[in-house]
Specification:
The chain contains 7 helices and 10 strands. It is α+β, with helices and mostly antiparallel strands and about 210 residues long. Helix 3 runs antiparallel to helix 5. The longest helix has 21 residues, at about 55-75.
Length: about 210
């Protein structure tokens, strides 16, 4: 199949890359309900101060590889790795109608594979999850085209990952409700996120929840 251009899709090798290649080539996309997961290495600037460049490379490469495996296992689009963040997009076509639940499960799994479940993380991670309508499609020009998501839930998930303490998953209340979480016994916070006119209500999860 690879010989006729139908190889695995780099953003999730479970799927054929042919259709997604056409989407990139013709700059397609649509506004859809989806969920976003951002995993952020907390304190990476301070860590880098005390490490050799090759050491920080090795650490981040290990983190990105672990996060990518989790995202693929949970049927996400492995969006990209930016700085110290790993980003996953969960769309109904791939993750199913329960995309918010899949994103939340992936967030907890990222904490688990980085050692937070046993209290000895090899890299400190905070995670943000948000759901809502985003534009998912190809952006860029010429040979620099990428499939990504744009919109308010993307920004919110990114801000939540930056606000989360190591070992925390911050999930918007809307995403938690969509994921079917029982929020009655969970810690709740109202956060003033950068660039947002109103506060964002979130619930706080950690690895023991749901694992």
């Amino acid at each position: 199949m690879r010989l006729i251009g139908k190889g695995a899709w780099p953003k999730n090798p479970k799927y054929c890359g042919s259709c997604f290649g056409l989407l990139s080539e013709h700059h397609g996309g649509a506004e859809i309900e989806c969920s976003l997961m951002f995993a952020d290495v907390r304190g990476s600037t301070s860590m880098a101060e005390g490490m050799r460049p090759s050491e920080i490379y090795t650490l981040m490469d290990r983190f990105f590889a672990a996060a990518a495996r989790v995202l693929v296992e949970h049927d996400a689009i492995v969006d990209r790795f930016v700085g110290d963040q790993a980003i996953g997009i969960f769309v109904p076509a791939l993750a199913g109608p329960d995309h918010a639940a899949r994103a939340t499960q992936a967030a907890l799994a990222v904490l688990a594979v980085t050692g937070h479940a046993v209290g000895a993380p090899w890299v400190p991670i905070g995670v943000g999850v948000a759901s809502g309508v985003a534009f998912v499609g190809s952006v860029g020009s010429a040979s620099h085209v990428d499939l990504t998501a744009l919109g308010d839930p993307v920004n919110v998930a990114s801000r939540l990952a930056s606000a989360a303490a190591p070992g925390e998953v911050l999930v918007t209340l809307d995403a938690a409700t969509s994921a079917g979480l029982d929020v009655s016994g969970l810690e709740r916070r109202d956060l003033a996120l950068k660039g947002k006119a109103v506060s964002t209500s979130v619930v706080v999860l950690s690895t023991p929840h749901g694992l």
